[in-house]
Amino acid sequence: MRALTIDAHGGLEQLRFRTDVPEPALGAATDVRVRVHAAALNHLDLSVVQGLPGVSIVAPWILGADAAGVVDAVGAEVTDVAVGDRVAINPGLSDRTCEFCRAGEQSMCVHFRLLGEHRPGTFADALVVPAVNVRRIPASLGFEQAAAAMLVATTAWRMVLTRAHVAAGEDVLIWGIGGGVALAALALVKRLGARAWVTSGSDAKLERAQALGADILLNHRTLDVAREVRARTGKRGVDVVIDSVGRDTWPASLGALARGGRLVTCGGTSGPVVETDVRRLFWNQWTILGSTMGNDREVDAAVGALSEGWLRVPIDSTYALADGRPAFERLASGARFGKVVLRVAEGG
Predict the structure, then answer these.
(1) What is the pLDDT of residue 272?
(2) How far from the centroid of its chain's Cα atoms is residue 89's Cα?
(3) Do 78 and 29 meet the contact criterion of CB atoms below 8 Å apart?
(4) What's residue 347's pLDDT?
(5) Which of 35, 118, 273, 295 has the maximum number of C-beta atoms within 10 A of its C-beta?
(6) d(CA 5, CA 19)
């Protein structure tokens, strides 16, 4: 089968489009095989190409976490989906037996893994996953949109609703509008009736975010974000900050946060190590929250919102699977607004 792979870590020169990768077979009675129609890139994929601490690969390693397609084989014990069903993939894999899984917190599983990072991924004609990792989608939800939204919508759902408990009337600062998680978070924040403050280094992206409902636009290249937030709120600050950038934005995130505010983070694209003055932390009674992917209930909720049509993640651009290199270049450029999608099969 065809697949977009790497043989070793490094730069984008490591990307290889192959046509001779063995097709996966069902490995357990609870597995399903999905014919992939569309897949989507995430910043995670760039990190996998570059190499992540403690994560090893076996060549040829298939990249990708997000996908949607059609079930074409099911194990003997699978009852929730059938051959021919249109499905989206939940890329978070859990063992379903640890104390966290038994409590319904699959993304906190002690053996939690992600497709494309810890197991071969979705940028291929077909993949095999446990049946619990697929969700049926309606014909009204295109494969490309479903693939684009799954990881980021689930991540944003957990960040905004479960972890930060954003409420109507609150002020929420979202860094880096244009990225998938930020755009999904914007949709959720507006749905909840909160005010969305968004940042970007591009005025064009800010204008597009305004068309999607963003209330306050901040160019973080030309403004001191924390100072601007303080000035516009009478020194109060915002109730919630949604930060997936890490080192570069951390000081401003805290500087923009109100007393008793919540900072929720799901990533560190600018670097993993941050510094916090613990005196400011306890004096201002801040809550700092980590968040990763989502549990089954949150996946179901995100798929429901996508199926109903009120949650959408913009698609920046679409490429053929064979054109993986320019797709990754688009992702790495920072110019995108929304998700970069790969067309794997027709009919998306």
Answers:
(1) 83
(2) 12
(3) yes
(4) 47
(5) 295
(6) 10
Cα dihedral angle (195, 200, 202, 204), rounded to 10 degrees? -30
Report whether 35 contacts 68 (CB < 8 A).
Answer: no
- As a whole number of angstroms, the distance between CA 267 and CA 264 comes to 10
- How many C-alpha atoms does 181 have within 13 Å on its Cβ side? 28
Q: What is the pLDDT of residues 96-152, one digit of tens each?
A: 999 999 999 999 999 999 999 999 999 999 999 999 999 999 999 999 999 999 999
Alpha carbon distance 341, 67 (integer Å): 9
Domains assigned to the chain: 3-136+314-343 (3.90.180.10), 154-290 (3.90.180.10)
Query: What residues contact residue 223 under an 8 Å CB cut-off, 6+ apart?
Result: none
| Cis upstream peptide for 53 (omega within 30°) | no
Q: Where are the alpha helices (DSSP H) in the chain?
A: 43-50, 99-102, 143-157, 180-191, 203-211, 225-232, 250-255, 278-283, 296-308, 324-333
- Average pLDDT, whole number, for the chain? 95
**144-166 confidence digits (pLDDT tens):** 999 999 999 999 999 999 999 99
SS3 state of residue 60: coil
Q: Are 129 and 28 in contact (CB under 8 A)?
A: no
Q: 51 φ, ψ to 5°?
A: 110, 135
Q: What pLDDT, on a 0 to 100 scale, did the predictor assign at position 346?
A: 62
Residue found under tokens 């068309």: 211
- The per-residue pLDDT for 79 is 95
* Pairing mode of beta strands 195-200, 216-219: parallel
- Within 10 angstroms of residue 188's Cβ, the number of other Cβ atoms is 24
User: 247-302, pLDDT tens digit by residue?
Assistant: 888 999 999 999 999 999 998 877 788 888 999 999 999 999 999 999 999 999 99
Do strands 287-290 and 257-265 pair parallel, antiparallel, or not at all (unpaired)? Answer: parallel
The answer to whether 140 and 146 have CB atoms below 8 angstroms apart is no
